[in-house]
Predict the structure.
Amino acid sequence: MNFTLTFLSATLLLATSAMAQKPETVDLWPKNQIPNAIPNEAVQEKSELGKDGILRISNVKIPTLTAFLPPKDKATGAAIMVIPGGGYGLLAYGHEGEEMAKWFNERGIAAFVLKHRLPDDRIETNKHEVPLADAMQAMKLIRQNAAKWNVNTDRLGVIGFSAGGHLASTLSTHYHRGATASEDAKPNFAILMYPVVTFGAKAHGGSRDNLLGKNASPEQIAYYSNELQVDGKTPPTFLVHAQDDKGVPVENSIDYYLALTKANVPAEMHLYPKGGHGYALRVQGKGSIENWPVACEGWLKAMGLLEKK
C-alpha cells in the first residue's frame, strides 16, 4: 500500500512538473493591430506533419512566439529566439523550431520559437517588410517579459536556419532600420545555420523571390544582401554550413564571415565537406557534421552563456 501511494505521489509530482514546463504561446501583436495585414478569410493557416516527421506550417496570419523554458534550477538567464527555415514559403517548425528549443533548454538556455508571417500578397501589404517586423516585435516582447520568463535582457540571441538564417542575419543588421526600428530588437549574439545571406549571385532564388518578388530592384537586392549590411555593431556570430549544400551555396556563410571579420566583429565558422541542407540536429551518420552541436555548445560556453548570471 505504501509503495502504491509513493508511486502515485511520484507520478502526480512528475505530471505537475510537466505541466509547469508546458510551453507558453503568445501573440506578437494585439488583435486587429497586426501591421501590413489584409483581411482574407480564403487564406487559412496550414500545419502538416510530413512522412519525414517534420512539422511544416504555412499561410501564417497570426504570428506567435512560443516560450520553452528550462527548469529554474538549471536556467542560466541566457535566451535565444529560434527562427525555422522554409524558403520564406513555409516554416520547418518541428526540427528547426521545437527540437532546437529543447536542445537549448537542456543547456539551461530559454528558447522562444518564432512563428512569423510569410511574404504573401494575398494577406499583406509590402510583404517584404513583414517577416522582419515580426522578428523585431518578438525580440521586444522577450525583453519586455524578461522578468516573467527569467531571462537577462543583455543575453538574448537569435538562431536561424536557411531562410530563417536570412531573417536572423537581417535582424542582426537591420534592427535599427524601418518603422519598427529599436535597439530592443537587436540580438546580443547570433547563430546562423546553413543561412541564406545574399540575394546576389549566390542567392537561394526561391527565398529571394518569395520575399521580394521576381522583379526586385538592384537596390532591394543589395538592401537584403546582408553581407553588405554588416558593421561594427553587428552581434558576434556562429555559422555552420556544408560544402555540398545544393540549396544554399556555402558562399553565403563565407561572405558573411568575411564581412564580420572586416568589421572586427567576433565570429566563428564551421564548414563541413558533407551534410547537405536542412539537417538541424538530425546529423547522425552524416560524417563530421555530426560535431556541429558540440562546436556550438563550446562557443556558447566561451560566450559565457552556459553560466548563471
